Each structure stands twice: as C-alpha cells, then as structure tokens.
Amino acid sequence: MKALIQRVSSARVEVAGEVVGDIGLGLLVLLGLDKGDDHAAAQRMLDKLLAYRVFADEQGKMNSSVTDVSGGVLLISQFTLSADTRKGLRPSFSSAMPPAEAQLLYDAMLQALVERHTEVASGQFGADMQVSMTNDGPVTFMLEV
C-alpha cells in the first residue's frame, strides 16, 4: 500500500465537472492499493496518515500532524501508484490490486477515516477525476506500509 501525501492549503476533486470533494488546509492523499494489501495494512496506513508530522509547529518545524492542526484529508484512489516502472517505457500494473477488491478496501479505509477524523472528503473510486490543489511548501511524501 502506498500513499502519496501532499500538504495543501486547498485541494478539490471533480467528476464530470462537478466538485465531489474539497478541503482547505490539510492533506491530499493519493492511495495506491497493491495485491496482498489488507485491512490491517489499511489501519496501519491510516494511523500513519493521521499522525505524520508535516505541518509547522510554533517554531516553524514540521512537528504537527493533520490531526494536530485540525486539517482536512482528501482521499483519492490512484491505482497508477502501483505501477512497476523499472523496465521499459510502459508501466506494468500486474502488482495492482484488482478493481473489485481495491474498491472494497478503499471504501473500508474511507469509512474508518471518517470515523476517526473530523474533516474528510474523497474522490469517486474508478472515475475519471480532475484533481487540483495548492501544494503548501511544496511538501510531498510517499508513505508505504
């Protein structure tokens, strides 16, 4: 499981021209699910996402989490993060979780996130989404569990 997280001052996602999710200050999370990922991995990722210190404290150091700053979390499924790009000029998606399984795990993770965090928005699994954001910093990290 991989999550590309970006500290944002704002982010939103549109499907067919309609905004389906948006946040102000917070984290844009692009989530890639691989074969073998399970609910335990999703829980570990969620724990890490909510506690990862990427926001400035009073001294300007990255010591605060999205929970500490009461920021939003915009969760977007992105199977392309599971691509194997080591060989050739075309990505291989053989390690990506099959769509039906991935949707179940994504939905479970989204539900757990909603239960644990106050401001949560999401994209639409499997849809053609237009994601826009203002990366604050820029600050971007790849988390893996």
From TrEMBL:
Q: Where in the cell is it found?
A: Cytoplasm
The protein's superkingdom reads Bacteria
Q: What is its EC number?
A: 3.1.1.96, 3.1.1.-
Q: Does the keyword Transmembrane helix apply?
A: no
SUPFAM superfamilies in UniProt: DTD-like
- Matching Pfam families, A to Z? Tyr_Deacylase
One GO molecular function term? D-aminoacyl-tRNA deacylase activity
Entry keywords, A to Z: Cytoplasm, Hydrolase, RNA-binding, tRNA-binding
As annotated in the record, motif Gly-cisPro motif, important for rejection of L-amino acids runs over 137-138
- Indicate the family of this protein: Belongs to the DTD family.
Q: Quote the record's domain comment.
A: A Gly-cisPro motif from one monomer fits into the active site of the other monomer to allow specific chiral rejection of L-amino acids.
Question: NCBIfam families this protein is in?
Answer: D-aminoacyl-tRNA deacylase (TIGR00256)
> What is its quaternary makeup?
Homodimer.
Function of the molecule: An aminoacyl-tRNA editing enzyme that deacylates mischarged D-aminoacyl-tRNAs. Also deacylates mischarged glycyl-tRNA(Ala), protecting cells against glycine mischarging by AlaRS. Acts via tRNA-based rather than protein-based catalysis; rejects L-amino acids rather than detecting D-amino acids in the active site. By recycling D-aminoacyl-tRNA to D-amino acids and free tRNA molecules, this enzyme counteracts the toxicity associated with the formation of D-aminoacyl-tRNA entities in vivo and helps enforce protein L-homochirality.
Stored PANTHER family: D-AMINOACYL-TRNA DEACYLASE 1, D-TYROSYL-TRNA TYR DEACYLASE
Name the UniProt record assigns to this protein: D-aminoacyl-tRNA deacylase
The species this protein belongs to is Candidatus Seongchinamella marina
Name the lineage.
Bacteria, Pseudomonadati, Pseudomonadota, Gammaproteobacteria, Cellvibrionales
Write the gene name. dtd
